[in-house]
Amino acid sequence: MNRVARPYLNPYVGGALLGVLLFLTFFITGGGLGASGGLTHVQVAVLDVFAPAHVDRVGYMAELAGGSKNALNNSTVFMILGTVLGGALSGWLNGRFKLEIRKGPHLSDGTRLLLAFIGGFIMVYGARMARGCTSGQALSGGAVLAAGSWAFMFAVFGGAYGLAWFLRRLWN
Amino acid sequence: MAPLANLLHPGTLGYFLVFLFIGMGFGAILEMSGFGDSRKLAAQFYFKDMTVLKVMFTGIAVACVLIFLSTSLGLLNYDRLWVNPTYLYPEIVGGLIMGVGFIIGGFCPGTSVVAASTLKLDGILFVTGGLFGVWAFGESVGSFEGFFYSSNYGRLTLYDWLGISPGVVVLLVVLMALVMFYLAEIAEAYFGEPPRKISWLPQSPLKMWAAAGLVAACGLMLVLGQPTPLAKWNILQNNWSKALADRAAYVHPGEVLELKKNASIYVRILDVRSEADYNLFHIAGAQRLDPAEIANASAMSRLSSFPDNTVLLLVSNGEEAATRAWKALKASGAVNLYIIEGGINKWLEVFPPEPCLLAGTSGQPAAAADQLHFAFRYAVGTQSRAAHPGSIRSQPWLQCPEITQTDAAAAAWLPTSKWFETPVYVKKVKLQRKVATKGGCG
């Protein structure tokens, strides 16, 4: 498929759509959007296949998949499944569904992939410590005015902006 | 009144589809906004492309305005929404760690899923790394549990913290977002590639109208204010007044006793009488709840933080005050909330206190009226067997100094007391597990 990628939405239009969706999510389910919760359930479910006894022994994991509990039977997993489908559908319709690596001009593919892996590791570790990620904490918690979510939001931007100058070769 | 979480039953197809469609919308919006591209995301931190900030803060401002406008119009019950509990230090440290991961990896968890779904290899690797991050967290959290559970402020909102009304905070959020957008446009013009000419005045009338619309919505919210618990009751009463009319909400003292004996249920008795009456006599374990405090949000947040096998029981001398409190708490979203039938007056008939504690009746009628029907000689508190029905204890709970325990009345009373019989009652309590989701953070 070699269609030309369509331009992205105007960010304010995208943001307004996101805001309406977030509102509807709260209106219908009483909770907000999220991603890291789904990742957690998926990971624990995979581990539960290979090492169920270990999952039962580690408190944090046993809570999700201990005993006969199925970690995948959870709303956050359905939501992340939808996120994958919705992202793929939109990417396909807009000509952006293709195998590629997005990176700064001075990086090799291998380095970029390694850094993505390391970044993902750090990012989700931090997300679990903060009890939510940019979606579940900053966006959802921010919209219902949770005090900790706002502190969290400034910490994320603070951490990224604080380190950005030192790592400018990665992206520029 | 929303949320409609009551209509969602885990395990059903509808439940699955609702979350699937929400997720699809989320994924599609993130993808269309360009969040599947790590370079675009990272450009945020070099001020070249402020898309992340614009999308995020537009989303927060729009959702925030819609949520609080709906609550002030009585369409949405804020007390039933999942508000992330504040664990301040873990959130700040976790946020800083995430910032580091963001600039190294180029995504946040949600955007990496979208990138992976459009076959961006770096997104797929990021998600894989993330799964290992979850695993590492699960393995290591045991070693810093003290920190992980520290600085817990519960359901703390910005407006509770600042001590101002929600409407003002929403207005401040919107104004902050608008100022950030203005600065973001200037930053993009200056740092962007290639740089554009900076326009110090906003150029787009459409954006100005949209901004004015958001501010106007905040103004409407400020004028309307947020509903008090009793105002919410007026909106919601049709849902629950039936439970009062057919007395499904009133629990016989005998059932209270059974609930207290049930190890799988956490019983919480809330006494809404005056402190004087509470001191004269109260049921063992009962805590006083000042009815004036029910309007106070912090009292409610304390109640909603109880485990979900909690049964809350309200009690007054008769039933009136407890019923008023029931309405207010019910409107605030309390579940498993009941009233002790007949109040303390009936309780003392079913589980009579030692006769030496009483100086007859207070002259108030026993039924309905919210006055204590019995006149206690002392402030007994829980020092009477009537406060501890069902417990076996050979000695009397409180010695009555001027009346000897060989007093004929007392002696006659003890062995034959109906206190030892299980009263007959109709079971009313149906434990309902909270259905509200914990948001997307699992």
Written description of the protein model:
The complex is a heterodimer of chains A (172) and B (442). Chain A is mainly α. In chain A, 69% of the residues lie in helices and 0% in strands. Chain A has nine helices and no strands. The longest helix of chain A has 21 residues. Chain B is α/β, with parallel strands linked by helices and 442 residues long. Chain B is elongated, with a radius of gyration of 29 Å. The two termini of chain B are 25 Å apart. The model of chain B has no long low-confidence stretch (mean pLDDT 82). Chains A and B meet through helix 1, helix 2, helix 4, helix 5 and helix 6 of A and helix 1, helix 2, helix 3, strand 1 and helix 4 of B.
Secondary structural class of chain A? mainly alpha
- The residue-averaged pLDDT of chain B reads 82
Shape descriptor of chain A reads globular
**Overall number of strands of chain A:** 0
Give the integer mean of the pLDDT values of chain A: 87
Major sheet description of chain A = none
Instruction: Please give the number of β-strands of chain B.
Output: 9
**Level of helix content of chain B?**
40-55%
Rg of chain B computed from alpha carbons, rounded to a whole number of angstroms: 29 Å
Q: Give the ordered list of helices and strands of chain A.
A: HHHHHHHHH
Total of helices of chain B: 17
Q: Which regions of chain A contain 5 or more consecutive residues with pLDDT less than 50? A: none
Biggest interface: A-B, 130 and 138 residues
Largest beta-sheet characterization of chain B: 5 strands, parallel
Secondary structure: helix percent of chain A: 55-70%
Give the overall silhouette of chain B: elongated
Relative strand content of chain A = under 5%
